[in-house]
Design a protein that fits this description.
The complex is a heterodimer of chains A (about 290) and B (about 350). With about 290 residues, chain A is mainly alpha-helical. In chain A, about 75% of the residues lie in helices and about 0% in strands. Chain A has helices spanning about 1-30, 40-55, 60-85, 90-105, 125-145, 145-155, 160-165, 170-195, 205-215, 220-245, 250-255, 255-270, 275-280. In chain A, helix 1 (about 1-30) crosses helix 9, helix 2 (about 40-55) runs antiparallel to helix 3 (about 60-85) and helix 6 crosses helix 7. Chain B is built from 13 helices and 2 strands; from the N terminus they run βαααααααααααααβ. The N and C termini of chain B lie close together (about 5 Å). The chains are: A mainly alpha (about 290), B mainly alpha (about 350).
Chain lengths: ~290, ~350
């Protein structure tokens, strides 16, 4: 069993990484009071962009950067609907997920089963694993140690007051939403550049939605989010190892574990209404029309 | 330039109907560059997309056959959407409904009994309701977000189906293919016209349209659901119980989606395979919005989205256009629709800074 410990730990860190990117972006978005259910779609757009560029022979950092841009552009469409036109945020996010799934499938329809070169390693892990942790620190520092972060939190708690003090609520929400899109794009890029590394239609397999659940699980705090992502990474890796070791359970039951685990943690964290009321941004998912 | 929303004194009624039409036109405009990109002639491609599928009796039969589950699922989802309960797990409820119905069909298929199909319908609706009861119970007891739970359960349902068709329900004489045995004729809906796949399950959907109209527009409970969606505070003052709204929303959408799964299994499929739904559960969300959350509108929405499916298949087969393009158009349609809907209540003005 001991010889398995290191691969399991490494595997956990790797499986957690796409979730950290996507959930960290969404965390900042939700902190500003916006709920973007389009994470899954933006991840797919990021994944297909990064894979396509890598397949065309471009360097991995450029591919990842382009994926972030693609995710940002995708989130911009959501932002226009949800912020400028103040439509229902749930519906706008769902539209983005459906659009992202279709569009990424269309862009990637002739990528075939081609494989791409690895993105390199540092102490056995690829650089994007470290970058995810660095970004977590950066988001934490931004939210809790800078004035701009404080403003974002105010906008999320009470957009009316923020506007009354003179902060441009809509513009701030645009910035956080586009940041969230870029991060989801990076999360997707990690999947197609390093984790798989292949392009398969709908390859995110619900990770965008798990990321949304992680934000709730983390009670909207960056470091708890990392711990949550590691937990999920651990569950994912353990079920893969269990399948590999021939555990006497149908593989479908093991594959269902991450989804069931998501439901279980949601129940555990939401059960106490006070926890939710204390931590959820007050204006989350409410349309805001400055009138 | 800045976009400014000004509230209208009177809502613009004609946009209730105009918005979906405008959204469809914008989607068609958007498709233009995509077709050019693929080296296709847009007008000719659009003709294959929208006209060709309906130019034969077989095409019309397929059109109604696909519209039927979409309409049924969307009717169920509408109950929840009106009360602000966001069920996006219709895909999973559809799957579990199909499994439950198929189990009955395979178990009692040889009995040739007249009550077999009704039994399968009850099993299908019941299966969907059981699957919907999980998020309802978790939401009312543990305050859990129904969006995330219903979505996660879609994946779990798909895995259960995969397990069953590879294991306990696999056809023993099926050469190890992941599929169940084919249903006996007694466990299938009879075709309405010989040579066409359209079957009697269409009447179930028709009945559901009437029933849901009565419920949503004419019953006190339906009224309560509208109020708790549109004005939750008012609903609380009036003493409408939120818990009941959640249960009702999820159970009715579960029953509808499960029944749709049964209709698909006992209709065009005739057996279970690992993939039984081309995304009906998600498309039905768009159908509900295109249909303005109203039964008659949903019929139109279902017919439109069904045509998008058929058109997508048609251009895929004759012009080799990837199927995912049709899915992109579905998403774009919802996008444009949400944007166009803003003009019902607001005047959209561009203003210089």
């Amino acid at each position: 069993m001991e010889h398995l410990l290191v691969p399991i730990l490494y595997g956990t860190l790797v499986a957690a990484t796409p979730l950290i990117y996507a959930a960290l972006g969404e965390l900042l978005v939700e902190r500003s009071g916006v709920l973007n259910l389009g994470v899954e779609g933006m991840m797919l757009i990021g994944a297909v962009t990064a894979f396509g560029l890598r397949l065309a022979g471009h360097p991995a950092p450029l591919a990842a950067l382009a994926a972030a841009c693609a995710g940002a552009v995708a989130s911009f469409f959501f932002a226009f609907l949800a912020l400028t036109l103040a439509t229902n945020q749930y519906a706008a996010g769902l539209a983005l997920t459906i659009l992202g799934s279709g569009l990424s499938g269309f862009i990637g329809h002739n990528f075939g089963s081609n494989s791409i070169p690895s993105i390199g390693h540092l102490f056995g892990l690829d650089p994007m694993v470290y970058l995810a942790l660095l970004l977590t620190g950066a988001v934490w520092w931004f939210l809790y140690r800078t004035k701009a972060g404080l403003v974002v939190r105010i906008v999320g708690e009470s957009p009316e007051s923020a506007l009354a003090i003179g902060y441009p609520v809509i513009r701030i929400r645009y910035l956080t939403t586009v940041f969230g899109g870029a991060m989801a794009g990076l999360g997707g890029a990690y999947l197609s550049l390093s984790y798989t590394p292949l392009w398969v239609e709908d390859m995110t397999a619900g990770r965008g939605w798990i990321a949304l659940a992680l934000v709730v699980f983390a009670t909207w705090r960056p470091w708890r989010l990392v711990i949550g992502a590691w937990l999920f990474g651990g569950v994912t890796v353990l079920q893969l190892f269990a399948q590999g070791l021939g555990v006497k359970l149908p593989s479908e039951f093991l594959s269902a574990l991450p989804y069931v685990a998501t439901i279980v943690v949601l129940v555990l964290i939401s059960r106490n209404p006070l926890t939710m009321r204390m931590n959820a941004p007050m204006s989350l998912a409410q349309a805001f029309r400055p009138e | 330039m800045r976009v400014v929303l000004e509230r209208r004194e009177e809502p613009l009624r004609f946009m209730q109907v105009g918005a979906p039409i405008l959204a469809l036109l914008l989607t068609i405009v958007l498709s233009w560059p995509f077709f050019l990109l693929l080296g296709l002639d847009p007008p000719a491609t659009l003709k294959i997309f929208f006209v060709e599928p309906l130019s034969s009796w077989n095409g019309i039969s397929e059109w109604l056959l696909k519209a039927s589950p979409l309409i049924l699922i969307a009717l169920g989802l509408t109950v929840g959407f009106r009360a602000n309960v966001w069920n996006i797990g219709a895909e999973g409820m559809f799957t579990i409904g199909a499994i439950a119905a198929a189990w009955c069909g395979l178990r009692y298929g040889a009995s040739d009994h007249v009550w077999l199909l009704p039994l399968m319908a009850v099993a299908g609706a019941g299966g969907g309701m059981v699957w919907a009861a999980i998020p309802a119970w978790l939401k009312t007891r543990a305050n859990t977000n129904e969006i995330l739970v219903t979505l996660m359960l879609n994946y779990v349902a798909a895995l259960i189906l995969s397990y069953l068709v590879n294991g306990p329900m696999q056809d023993p004489d099926g050469l190890n293919y992941p599929q169940t045995a084919s249903f006996e004729p007694a466990a299938m809906f009879a075709p309405l016209f010989s040579g066409l796949r359209l079957n009697a399950s269409l009447f179930i959907t028709a009945a559901a349209v009437v029933l849901s109209w009565l419920f949503l527009e004419r019953s006190f409970l339906g009224f309560q659901m509208n109020v708790s969606g549109a004005a939750p505070v008012a609903a609380r003052y009036a003493g409408f119980r939120q818990t009941r709204m959640v249960w009702l929303s999820l159970l009715s959408s579960g029953a509808a989606a499960g029944l749709a799964g049964m209709m698909e299994a006992a209709g065009p499929l005739g057996q279970l395979t690992p993939s039984i739904s081309p995304g009906y559960g998600f498309t039905a969300i768009i159908v509900a919005f295109v249909g303005r959350l109203q039964p008659l509108g949903i019929v139109c929405g279902g017919l439109l989205l069904s045509l998008l499916y058929l058109g997508g298949e048609a251009v895929q087969m004759s012009l080799n256009v990837p199927a995912s393009l049709a899915r992109s158009f579905q998403g774009a349609l919802l996008f444009f629709l949400l944007a166009a809907d803003v003009s019902i209540v607001y005047r959209i003005r561009l203003r210089r800074r």
